[in-house]
Amino acid sequence: MKVLTVTGYKSMELGIFKVEDPKISFIKAAIKKRLITLIEEGLEWILISGQMGVELWTGEIVLDLQETYDVKLGIIPPFENQENRWPEPIQQSYQALVMAADFHQPLYKGEYKGGFQFKAKNDWFVEKSDGCLILLDDENPGSNRFFYEKAKNARNYPIYLITPADLDDAVEEQRMADPDYWS
């Protein structure tokens, strides 16, 4: 696998409303662990649309991983200026990510015009990538369910999931890494 799409929940779907929420570190740890494995197996590109939450955090992880690994980040939003209505700190994170990305190009010129742009985005990501990594809880799907359904219907398209159990493992691993945990 050379090209991977990563997606998942928007931050508000996870009950995360601040950029310094401690839950983000556990989510990032779980994503990073999976990405490192795939990169070490030959992954070259990670694609995101840049939406708030899992995708932005993934972009930040990829930039960190680029210090050690030869992996590239592509940001392909469904339309221009998707971040205009986001909170200011998240807009700033997005803009910094776009500036540092190896590739950035919206699928559609201009502002939001309709839901068809999100459907086209999902179609494009499945067509242009060799597989996907999705943060997903089958019992509580969010907006990520649309991409997940598209991915499930594609032929020979590997789907890697990060589940609530994986997040629990990330929490436990971080707790155990704390020297005070053992005293």
Describe the structure.
InterPro entries: YspA. It comes from Virgibacillus necropolis. Belongs to the UPF0398 family. The mean pLDDT is 95. This protein has a single domain (3-177), classed as Rossmann fold, CATH 3.40.50.450. β2 (45-48), α2 (54-65) and β3 (72-75) form a beta-alpha-beta unit. It is α/β, with parallel strands linked by helices. A 6-stranded parallel β-sheet has the order 4-3-2-1-5-6, sandwiched between helices. The protein contains 6 helices and 6 strands. The radius of gyration is 16 Å and the shape is globular. Helix content is 43%, strand content 13%. It has helices at 23-40, 54-65, 88-100, 116-128, 144-152, 164-177; strands spanning 3-7, 45-48, 72-75, 103-104, 131-135, 159-162.
What's the topology here?
Elements (H helix, E strand, L loop, with lengths): L2 E5 L15 H18 L4 E4 L5 H12 L6 E4 L12 H13 L2 E2 L11 H13 L2 E5 L8 H9 L6 E4 L1 H14 L6
Parallel strand pairs: 1-2, 1-5, 2-3, 3-4, 5-6
Helix pairs in contact: 1-2, 1-6, 2-3, 4-5
InterPro entries: YspA
Organism: Virgibacillus necropolis
Protein name: UPF0398 protein CFK40_18020
CATH fold group = Rossmann fold
* Helical fraction: 40-55%
What is the CATH architecture annotation?
3-Layer(aba) Sandwich
H and E string: EHEHEHEHEHEH
Please report the distance between the alpha carbons of the first and last residues. 43 Å
Number of domains: 1
- Overall pLDDT, averaged? 95
Radius of gyration: 16 Å
Helical region count?
6
